[in-house]
Amino acid sequence: MLLGLETQWIGPVQARDGILLTVVGVLGPGRMDEWRAGRMVRAPAILRRPSRYLDPDVPDQERALLRRGIALVGTVKSAALVQVLAHGSVPSELAAGVRRFARRAIQSSVGRWSARSASIVTAIVIGDRTGLDAEVERRLQEAGTYHVIAISGGNIAILVGLTLTLFRFAGLLGVVGLAAYGYLVGRGASVDRATLMAIVYLAGRILDLRGPPLNALAVVAAVLVVINPFAVSDPAFLLTFGATAAILAVAGRLPSNQVPRVAAGAISILIASAASEAALMPVSAMVFSRVTFAGLVLNLAAIPLMAIAQIAGMVVVPLSLLSERLAVVAGWIAFVGAEGLVVSARLVEIVPALTWRVAKPSAWVLAVYYGGLVGTWLVWSGVGSRRAHVPATRTRPGAFSAAVCLGASIWILAEPTRILRARGDGRLHVTFIDVGQGDASFVQFPQGDTLLVDAGGLSGTRRLRHWRSRGRAALAPGWSSATWDVGTNPRRRRPHWRRRLPDS
Q: Of 81, 98, 124, 166, which has the most beta carbons under 10 Å away?
């Protein structure tokens, strides 16, 4: 049955969830300044539900977008079809104007040295990641240092430190400044969490509340869960609070008299990185199907480099009003910090073993891992709090817990079940996979060889690139390569065979 539909504009409608529109065409970059947050626009768009993969244990992209308030996605064919109907409120227009000025100042001062570095500094300073190159994002993610370019706890912590350093009585001023900065960068879940943590910390200083930092962390987590109970299922929520809790758990446990003052900063960063990596390694395996150890070393450089890029990038904005020459100098300093982030991330290319693609670990492996991790911390924290010599018998439970945790982590990385499957079990297995553009088939032969049948219709290099991207997003079943792969080619009448599919 063929139905004819007629659309009609009925006026602005208030909806609880939003729509993510992609404007195509060459006119978009020239009109982006008109599309400011808070303004009301009208545009004809083709709307659809977010695409998602129907494979088992694959993250639901539609649900992830709903957590961000996005219910539908759509496409606008041209920027000329987007009409601005009304301006936003005074605060939103003012914030948009500041973001626009900051973006142009950074592009002028930092972009003179490198357009790539300018996009990184823009992301660090005002949270605008639209100019980031996909290759840069991938490299930072594999290196475990992507968190430094997303406005979150690290960026807010630097602002808190600057506020407390520059102003002796920085309580109320810091609260107002952090709230204004959170509003300026466009808010967002990670910004809200970090800003709320900082405000609770500064409010505690104002009220002279000297409780443990974990209490403030618990207050922030409780507030966010009350506002949005589904936040506990958000991977970003788990990553943020898991890393923060791990860092607070080990903070102050190392005796100060055993640490050289010159190396204290580097040792603190290394301990914090190790604690957060230990706490989040299984979470990263579950959510991203990736485990990286490069961050243990790279954070020693990434965190100071991020601080340089952020502080210098912020200085560029007011200096551009006073002196172009001084702004260029500050832009060069920000360029050095941003470029250093990208260069340091190349460590994973030199040592590929620092990053692993893994399958989603089972629930019992997670239970064993975290049981051993908690047991190790309880024994270590109890022993570390005593100054007197502790008998070896008191440390044996900690050693056993550490061994259990280490064994579980090796299980996650090595995937013994995959090794057994690779030997073959004498039976034929066929798995049908949803890849977004039809289905594909993954065949495991009785002797252990594997065959991937791609029904997407792509060929040659395009097909391999398609499978690399689809493999990262659609599934991680414990296989990173296939012995044979065959794909249909619209220009051929018979399938095209290829030996040994590269790692996805």
A: 124
